[in-house]
């Protein structure tokens, strides 16, 4: 049987400039049999944000007190604004309430700040996942993305396989964490940055030139964060324009530089990030990473499954 979810929309970041895509996403989810609610956040606006700080904060904090909870809380879009909310999120209350009634808290990009802060403060696991406007509201939503989103929410143990351009052969177990690289780096030195030892760090970004990506990774190295990881999994890095000035400097040279500096494997090729085809990853889950002759697999366990999924196992 196919799970039918109640999906509460949340908008903790930027105003949804592409209104047509957001409403197309609502219709797409409805056509699949799901029940989107709180759709008024799509049109809500204050300056460049999807509402005032208080309104956007309430999207999250109200989950702690709501008498009825959704199966999924889904971010409308990213942009900017989540960082303004971090000091006032009711972390313990949210974690306690959502432990009693598991909710898949889903989003990516700017939402990474909230996801990592929740994990740092409470250990609560969220999903780096497709969002309403950019993914479900695409002109032609990706069947690949939908399948991975649907399947991981229904399986206690979930394996993702891909082909990576990497020389290492590995078998590593640790906590999977990360998300958008720029947002992760913005938390360095704050209470919202998780302390993950022997972790498996997954990163992605968009519209960031390779030199900016290298600068961010060096920040993680100089802060002592990268040294604590067993491996780095590379999602998509796109949207940057290289020029003659770069003289061959590219993402590949960045990965090689950081490999040589840190001694840490950098595993490429995971379809994850600001693309139409993206896997869904539980941030904070237990992971088993295996690599053999470029064949990569990531087995994930310990992530919260929405009640509607459990009724259809």
UniProtKB/TrEMBL annotation:
Sorted UniProt keywords: Carboxypeptidase, Hydrolase, Protease, Serine protease
Chain segments annotated as coiled-coil in the UniProt record: none
SUPFAM superfamilies referenced in this protein's UniProt entry, alphabetically: Class I glutamine amidotransferase-like, LD-carboxypeptidase A C-terminal domain-like
Domain LD-carboxypeptidase C-terminal stretches: 173-289
GO molecular function: muramoyltetrapeptide carboxypeptidase activity
InterPro entries with a match to the protein in the record: Carboxypeptidase_A_C_sf, Class_I_gatase-like, LdcA_N, Peptidase_S66_N, Peptidase_S66C, S66_fam
PANTHER family linked to this entry: MURAMOYLTETRAPEPTIDE CARBOXYPEPTIDASE, MUREIN TETRAPEPTIDE CARBOXYPEPTIDASE
Family: Belongs to the peptidase S66 family.
Protein name as catalogued: Muramoyltetrapeptide carboxypeptidase
